[in-house]
Write a structure and sequence with these properties.
Pfam families: FecR_C (PF16344), Plug (PF07715). It contains 6 helices and 47 strands. By secondary structure, it is mainly beta. The chain has 2 domains: about 1-110, Phage tail protein beta-alpha-beta fold, CATH 3.55.50; about 240-785, TonB-dependent receptor, beta-barrel domain (Maltoporin, Chain A, Beta Barrel). A hairpin with a 2-residue loop joins β34 (about 565-575) and β35. The longest helix has 19 residues, at about 5-20. It starts with a helix and ends with a strand. The relative contact order is 0.11.
């Protein structure tokens, strides 16, 4: 990018800051209570704790600066009819005013140590978990809608080396090492448009909890992270609905009270790509289908033409039934679907022939839970879930008269009993039992030459977990420690997984944090061939067999897939005062049991089967400053060193991981004034490791490529600038319209996100480059009731 272009961005960021200085004339107007609370937090160095529904649609004036804190809380109480309780000299709980008879049971809310982490709707809790609430989400550069899996990529230590939500790398891990939960159900598909859009509708998602370390003991799997997406779980007898569209899809949702104690939540979203072709769709199509069967053919051979038809949809539903005040039943349903069909036409021997290839990807989820509140201290939840993932492809090679069928199916069933005991507001206990059965099958069927392979595996596990959480009376110390014990009957193996989260506040504005965990998982994604499943979704799920080398059973070679095991620890220091956050967190993580097939090698190790590990150490640094809720800016930087160790490869010498992004930097600014929100951001990171051909030792008579040292070089640095803007207006007393515009990759930077090499017909080495999205605009219009 030119210096002139960079200068424009910094000028715009400066202009946004100047606008902030001219926004002081609005003090006596009534504003959203959320805005007023932020100003008071900055002015008096306090923190408010509240449920979003409590302050929804509430407005107040900005109090005079000469008032004491007690006077301010008194004024707010009169204006909003809410109760403001000063828990200590720093924390204020906001509750709905209730009759005296209902106010006897006052509980301390979980402490939010950092509000508006990057933007509104993102907070960080004192146990290290980051919470995202799409309902109150502000705006981020390049996003005009609260896409869950795109949003978390703004967090330090989280990125996607290929710009997709189906390949999110958290602290050096691969995407399959993230546990994605939708209302407690494990999901095996995360994206629409084969990874460019999140598969989960943000407008029916109440809260998303992201844990990179120190994970609560109730969670198994997910050795890199937990991404826990939760739908609303309380009946409030309020109707809510909305709908909208952008240049890729349209959606509607509704929260419908059926009776006083029942509620139905429904939503549906569908692409418009098969109905109307938009410029955004063309750009997405070019990005996702490059280097796939839809583009990898020579038009000079038999004049092949390919016409594709693609669409996606998702449907969610949740039924809530409060049998009594103490007994609650919940039913959940989710269907995520991607479908692609393309017709291959060719003139062979003066005869026109046409064959239809197709790809289908679906994740169906069903859940049932029953919660019983035995008393004010003890509650239990019994939950039964089923997740069914299905990836099917039929690929016709019209030139070679070949048909290939590939299937990857997962059935994940689980039963869980969770027990919560609140001794008081300072001590909480959590424990339970979970049974999981996962069955995965893989089919490959070729007609010419005739070949068929069908592999099916099942793994069952029994888990017991227990955890205690202690919060000191002055809210300065928070300790959470627990253990999860997993038993795998198939392997006669017991694994203990201790978890620790320690947070200590000192000097009022500093917080020291220690997190640690041991985790394991029995599922992984592998790549057999880069052109599997039409080259679009070439990763397939497999189950651990706990083998560490190839074994032969009934004449078949069984490839090793060990149980993945991880160890991680981190130490962090956070400073938070006057809306200035400075955060630094160093971490060390090691993962054992990875296989070369799960790492996506495209060099000399592409067809090698070996078991090894990776070790990553790094630091995440963040500076975030907010100015009177009008302007917010942040700078994040991550440094990490991520190396593989495979005893059988590279003479056992460690070499860079495929996801070893040594340096990553992000600079963003957000300007909010009344109903207008603007965001501008820069993203830069060092290039992905790559392996170059060794031309000096290349044998022209050999059908293989000679390579230099693995991952000894890097692609060019990645750079991208994004912007977005939204404007909301009241259409009626109960309806609000929101119009949004975003531009991804403003300067149309050509970022090479992957390079590999192949041989042409004359055995010449040819480089193949995968290019990121170019400049991509999008427009959205929504109406919420």
């Amino acid at each position: 990018m030119s210096r002139k272009g960079t200068g424009y961005i910094f000028i715009l960021l400066f202009f946004l800051n100047v606008l902030n200085l001219n926004a002081q004339t609005i003090q006596k107007e009534k504003h959203s209570l959320t805005v007023v609370l932020k100003i008071i937090e900055t002015r008096y160095n306090i923190s408010f704790s509240y449920a979003d529904a409590t302050i929804q649609n509430k407005k107040a004036t900005i109090p005079d600066e000469n008032l004491s804190l007690d006077d301010v809380l008194y004024v707010l109480k009169k204006e909003t009819k809410l109760d403001f309780e000063l828990l200590d000299n720093r924390f204020v709980a906001i509750k709905i005013n209730k009759p005296l008879s209902l106010q006897n049971n006052i509980q301390r809310l979980d402490e939010v140590i950092i509000t508006n982490y990057l933007t509104t709707g993102i907070t960080k809790l004192n146990d290290g978990i980051i919470t995202i609430k799409p309902e109150t989400f502000g705006i981020l550069p390049g996003l005009i809608e609260p896409d869950v899996l795109q949003t978390i990529q703004s967090l330090p230590g989280v990125l996607s080396i290929d710009e997709t939500v189906s390949n999110i790398n958290i602290r050096g891990g691969t995407h399959d090492q993230n546990l994605l939960l939708w209302d407690g159900i494990k999901m095996y598909q995360s994206g629409h448009f084969f990874g460019l859009i999140s598969a989960f509708n943000p407008y029916t998602t109440k809260q998303v909890n992201v844990s990179k370390n120190g994970t609560p003991a109730k969670y198994g799997d997910g050795i890199s992270s937990i991404i826990d997406m939760q739908m609303p779980n309380k009946i409030d007898n309020k109707f809510k609905a909305g709908g909208g569209f952008n240049l890729i899809n349209a959606d509607v949702f509704a929260k419908i009270p059926l009776t006083q104690n029942t509620e139905l939540q429904i939503s549906t979203r569908r692409s418009v790509t098969d109905l109307i072709v938009t410029p955004t769709y063309d750009l997405y199509k070019k990005r996702v289908f490059q280097d796939s069967d839809l583009t990898n053919f020579n038009r000079n051979d038999n004049a092949i033409d390919k016409n594709e038809a693609f669409y996606f949809y998702d449907i969610t539903a949740k039924f809530l039934y409060d049998i009594t005040k103490k007994d609650k039943i919940r039913l959940q349903f989710l269907n995520v679907n991607n479908k692609l069909n393309y017709e291959e036409q060719a003139n062979i021997n003066d005869r026109n022939e046409a064959l239809n290839s197709k790809l289908s990807q679906q994740n169906l989820a069903l859940g049932f839970s029953y919660t019983r509140d035995w008393n004010s201290k003890l509650s239990t939840t019994a939950q039964v879930n089923v997740s069914n993932y299905d990836l099917d492809a039929t690929n016709f090679d019209i030139i070679n008269n070949q048909r290939l069928i590939q299937e990857n199916k997962v059935i994940d069933g689980s039963a869980k009993l969770d027990i919560n005991y609140k001794h008081n507001s300072l001590l909480k206990l959590n424990g339970g039992y979970q049974f999981i059965e996962v069955g995965i099958c893989n089919l490959e069927d070729v007609n010419n030459p005739i070949f068929r392979s069908y592999i099916r595996d099942v793994v069952r596990s029994h888990s017991l977990y227990a955890e205690a959480a202690f919060l000191s009376n002055n809210a300065k110390t928070n300790i959470k420690f627990g253990n999860r014990t997993n038993y795998f009957p198939k392997f006669n193996m017991v694994l203990n997984e201790p978890r620790l989260s320690l947070s200590q506040r000192f000097f009022n504005y500093f917080r020291f944090e220690i997190l640690g965990e041991l985790k394991s998982q029995t599922t992984a994604q592998i790549i057999d061939l880069q052109n599997d499943f039409l080259g679009i979704e070439n990763r397939r799920w497999v189950l651990s067999n706990n083998n560490k080398e190839v074994i032969t059973i009934n004449g078949k070679n069984i490839q090793p897939v060990p149980i993945l095991k991880s160890k991680q620890t981190s130490i962090g220091v956070h400073y938070n005062k006057n809306k200035l956050l400075v955060s630094a967190e160093g971490y060390l993580k090691k993962v054992d049991g990875i296989t070369t097939r799960s790492q996506g090698f495209q060099n000399q190790y592409q067809f090698v089967n070996s078991v090894g590990s990776y070790k990553i150490k790094g630091i995440d640094f963040l500076v975030n400053k907010q100015f009177n809720t009008i302007f917010s800016t942040w700078l994040s930087y991550s440094y990490s060193k991520n190396n593989y160790t495979f005893p059988d490869l590279n003479s056992g010498i460690s070499f860079p991981n495929n996801t070893d992004i040594r340096h990553a930097l992000a600079l963003s600014g957000i300007y909010t004034y009344n109903d207008i929100k603007l965001a501008l951001g820069l993203n830069w990171h060092s290039g992905k490791p790559t392996t170059l051909p060794d031309y000096a030792n290349d044998d022209p008579n050999d059908n293989t490529i000679a390579y230099a040292l693995p991952n000894a070089n890097n692609l060019n640095d990645y750079f991208r600038a994004d912007c977005s803007a939204t404007y909301s207006l009241d259409v009626t007393d109960t309806a609000t319209a929101i119009v949004g515009l975003s531009v991804w990759n403003i300067f149309n930077r050509k970022n090479i996100i992957n390079t590999y090499y192949t041989l042409d017909a004359d055995k010449n080495v040819i480089p193949i480059e995968n290019i990121s999205l170019g400049i991509t605009p999008n427009v959205s219009v929504r109406v919420n009731f």
